[in-house]
Amino acid sequence: MENLLGQGRAAIDLIADDGSFEENALADLNLPCEDYGPGAVVGSARINGEMCTVIANDAMTFNPRFPVVYAGIIGLEEGYKMALAVYRTLAMDKDKPAQEKRPLVLIVDTPGNGPGKLEEIIGMNKATGAYQLALAEARHAGHPIIAMVIGRAISGAFLCHGLQADHILSLTSRFGTMIHVMPLSSIARITRQDVERLGELSRTNPVFAAGPEFFWELGGVEELIHAIAEMREAIVRHIADVREHKGESGSTTTGPQGRGVSGNQRGGRKMRGVILAQMCEEYQAVSARYQADW
């Protein structure tokens, strides 16, 4: 297999124990209809013998109610379906100690959120926001969350389906993986910079470049995976690593906070700590004035 682009379901079969994945098997999932959010694949699977919640994109289907949702795009229904799977996982394990809470494994291959007018009117941002919040709550509750990028991880879809994970893993760019916020043409319009200039920067600057190797420099990827056959072992290893980190330091050394530290150590986000220190200093300088008014 040369790559896994568009093959979220195949990736689940490669990662899960043989025959263990059960789609929509989470307790009381109660989807509004049988084909709700067809672009989202959710269920339970055993990985190295441990029961996990698995959430993936299905790039080979489309949503007939929302024509712009196809090829792995996360639409309105998909966002809510993924959020519901996380909240059902939280409910099932709410009385378990942290070391026994089931992991969540996210299989990421998405070109973005549903960009249609109908989605925006109904509330696309609410659906993706609900999914982000659900993952953040699960992460702070002690569930290890591992995101495995097998293809595209782009824009707001990656923001909700991946960036709230404790650890993000990615196949290398040799497998066609791509991680970025938006195309250079869009960045050019927003920043009013020539796209040619941004093209030059993208070859060396991790902020503008789209490959997972550059995102690793920014601290965004915990580990680059160099073979498809190595994904399963890496996920199992990182589940154990995340549990160990959370047992020692809570959720402060994983997730978005941990990635900020990694980016500084790797030289890709050198100014983050400086800016945070300046913001804290400025806040301390004025906070007493406002607290006195309270």
What is the fold's blueprint, element by element?
Blueprint lengths: L7 H8 L6 E2 L16 E8 L2 E8 L4 E2 L2 E5 L5 H17 L11 E7 L6 H6 L1 H18 L3 E10 H6 L6 E5 L6 E3 L3 H8 L3 H8 L9 H6 L5 E3 L5 H19 L5 H11 L6 H22 L1
Parallel strand pairs: 3-6, 6-7, 7-8, 7-9, 8-10
Antiparallel strand pairs: 1-2, 2-3, 4-5
Helix pairs in contact: 2-4
Uncertain stretches: none
Q: Which bin fits the share of residues in helices? A: 40-55%
**In this structure, how is the largest beta sheet organized?**
8 strands, mixed
Q: Roughly how many Å apart are the termini?
A: 63 Å
Q: What's the β-strand tally?
A: 10
Radius of gyration equals 20 Å
Structural category is alpha/beta
Shape verdict: globular
Write the H/E string, N to C. Answer: HEEEEEHEHHEHEEHHHEHHH
Report strand %.
Answer: 15-25%
Mean pLDDT: 90
Count of DSSP H/I helices: 11
